[in-house]
Structure formats: C-alpha cells, structure tokens
C-alpha cells in the first residue's frame, strides 16, 4: 500500500532508454484501475524478448517506463462494459495492446494498424505484477498449457507463425531460417516442419545443431564452418530455397539471404539489425529475379488461435529458461550478448 491509500506493486522501471540502461526494481508503482472495456490482469510470467533489449537500450522507439510484451496471468477485476464471466480467466498480453479497428488498414490486417498501441512501447508493459488491458485484445489461454510455456508464444511464436504464412509455401518446399537456433528461429523450425516444409536451419555450434535437427529441421548448416550458399544450392537442385525467413538481427544474414533464395522466391524480414541498415539488393536484381520481400511482425488473432492449438497438440514446444524477476538486469545483459539459448521467461512475484 502506497501513500494516501494507493495500492502499489512491484515493477522493473526504466528511467530512460539509453545504451547500457538498467532497470530499477520498484515497489511503489501504482496498480491501475480498469476503465470501460478493460480488465485488470495479475501477471504470473512474462517473456523477455530481444526486442525489449533493443527498446531499453534506445535502439528502437520506446515511450513508456515499463517494458515487456509476453505476459500471462489471470483477470482479477473487470471494468465497466466487461462481462464478469471474464473474472479469473487466464489470459495473455501481447505486443499489440490495441488497434483502432476502424481504419482501412485494420480492415485488411490489423497487425499493421497505424493507430495501434503496443505493450512496452507506448503503454506500460508486462515487467510488472499488474496491468490493465482492453478485454477484446487479451488472448484466452487453453487450460492444457502452462503459463511459462505460453508466454514466448505470444510474441516469438506468433511472429514466426505469421512470417511462415506470409512465405506462402507448399508442402515439400524449401525454407531456410538464418538464426534457427535462437529464441525465434527454433520455434520457426517446429512450425515449418510440422507444416511439411523442408527446413534448412542456419546457425552455429553443436548444441544448436542438435536442437534444430531434433525439432524437425531437414538439415543444419553452421555459418562458421560450412559453405552455406554452396550447400543450399546443392540441396535445392541449384535453384535456391523457395523462401528465407531472417530471424537473426544480423546484417550479414540479410546480405546472404538474397544469395540463398531462388528466382521468384520470398524473403521475409523479421530480425532487426540497426535501424539505418538497408537491404543489399538493387531494384534491377529485384526485377530480373522476380523476388518478393515482405516484413512481418506479430500476427492476427486467428493465427494466435491456430498456434495455441498446435501447442496443445505438442507440435510446438518453446525451449525456455525461467529466471526470477529480481534477476532481470543480469538476464538483459546476457540477452544483449546472445548468451542465452531458446526463450527467456521471468517469474513475476506473487
């Protein structure tokens, strides 16, 4: 309880985004009250995404003081115009906090609504015990799934599910995933292989090789020791892959990706290099090769439901490392150095 009877909570608070910034564990952050159409959620777990690190370090826009966008918890209070049947429901809080639902873009695909708000970008995110969210935007969580397993699916899993859909592949087509052993990539390997695509996983190290092959990759190429372009062409009858989904935030991965994709192929951009990096291909080569380049961030409600259904069936299982909330700064430093495999999940104090 804070001053003047205001109820407070624990949160990882950011003074200002900047290189090397650290989060302050505070116990005096006010617990919000749900307004019309909103619910108050008590969080149990939250994922910690590489995109959170980019925001906290000032590398991508952030206009709030609490990061995080992969939260799972229970509805403990409903605001006006929300059915009380939502009380005690287990729900997920995603990157897309809200959309306008009324513009021309929303009519086609609300994930790129120009009027959207985002958890941890311009509204307080999931690095706290309690938050309010629009009732129509939260994700209902199937009872069969553990909260810590669901958390990474709300952003990383959904992002890869939607990216793979945008590649518009047919069963038997070749898909290459640079960064396949990472937090995003390992989920993409599972989703793509279950859909019947032949996955070429690119990463480095024996541990990632074993993981990717175990998760369904057709083959694994180590970018430090294998001749990646030569091997990809050999596997694909000299044409290259039908699609490449770049999950690594690496300029080198993007530079190489165009060499791996066949004519009429598709490049899906997911990983985030520095903001002033331009794709290394000319309009001339785009024209003569008939290439498709598409950006992808998060996914639709329908795609979220489909992904959770895959998870219930055991077709997608995030590889997670769970940490106590108090370890958040150490975890962030390790994430920044790419020292943690799979997905990071923080246990929220109860």
Automatic annotation (TrEMBL):
InterPro entries: ADH-like_C (IPR013149), ADH-like_N (IPR013154), ADH_Zn_CS (IPR002328), ER (IPR020843), GroES-like_sf (IPR011032), NAD(P)-bd_dom_sf (IPR036291). GO terms for molecular function: alcohol dehydrogenase (NAD+) activity; zinc ion binding. Pfam families: ADH_N, ADH_zinc_N. Residues 20-346 form the Enoyl reductase (ER) domain. SMART domains: PKS_ER (SM00829). Its cofactor is Zn(2+). GO terms for cellular component: cytoplasm. Keywords: Metal-binding, NAD, Oxidoreductase, Zinc. Belongs to the zinc-containing alcohol dehydrogenase family. PANTHER family: ALCOHOL DEHYDROGENASE 1-RELATED, DEHYDROGENASE FAMILY OXIDOREDUCTASE, PUTATIVE (JCVI)-RELATED. This is Enoyl reductase (ER) domain-containing protein.
């Amino acid at each position: 309880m804070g001053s003047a009877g205001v109820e407070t909570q624990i949160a990882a608070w950011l003074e200002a985004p900047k290189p090397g910034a650290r989060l302050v564990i505070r116990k005096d952050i006010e617990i919000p009250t749900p307004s019309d159409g909103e619910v108050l959620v008590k969080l149990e777990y939250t994922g910690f995404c590489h995109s959170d690190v980019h925001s906290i370090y000032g590398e991508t826009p952030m206009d709030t003081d609490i990061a995080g966008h992969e939260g799972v918890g229970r509805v403990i209070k409903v605001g006006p115009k929300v059915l009380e049947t939502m009380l005690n429901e287990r729900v997920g809080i995603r990157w897309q906090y809200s959309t306008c639902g009324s513009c021309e873009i929303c009519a086609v695909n609300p994930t790129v609504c120009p009027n959207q708000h985002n958890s941890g970008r311009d509204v307080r995110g999931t690095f706290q015990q309690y938050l309010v969210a629009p009732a129509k935007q939260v994700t209902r969580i199937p009872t069969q799934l553990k909260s810590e397993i669901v958390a990474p699916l709300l952003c990383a899993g959904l992002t890869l599910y939607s990216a793979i859909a945008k590649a518009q592949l047919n069963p038997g087509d070749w898909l290459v995933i640079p960064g396949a052993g990472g937090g995003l990539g390992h989920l993409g390997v599972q989703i793509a292989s279950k859909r019947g695509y032949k996955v070429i996983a690119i990463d480095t190290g024996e541990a990632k090789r074993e993981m990717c092959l175990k998760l369904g990759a057709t083959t694994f190429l180590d970018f430090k020791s294998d001749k990646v372009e030569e091997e990809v062409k050999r596997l694909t009858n000299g044409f290259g892959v039908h699609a490449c989904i770049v999950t690594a935030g690496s300029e080198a991965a993007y530079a190489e990706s165009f060499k791996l994709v066949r004519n009429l192929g598709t490049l899906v951009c997911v990983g985030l290099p520095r903001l002033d990096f331009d794709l290394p291909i000319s309009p001339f080569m785009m024209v003569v090769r008939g290439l498709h380049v598409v950006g992808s961030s998060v996914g639709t409600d329908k795609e979220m439901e489909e992904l959770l259904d895959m998870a219930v069936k055991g077709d997608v299982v995030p590889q997670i490392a769970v940490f106590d909330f108090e370890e958040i700064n150490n975890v962030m430093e390790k994430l920044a150095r790419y020292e943690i495999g799979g997905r990071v999940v923080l246990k929220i104090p109860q």
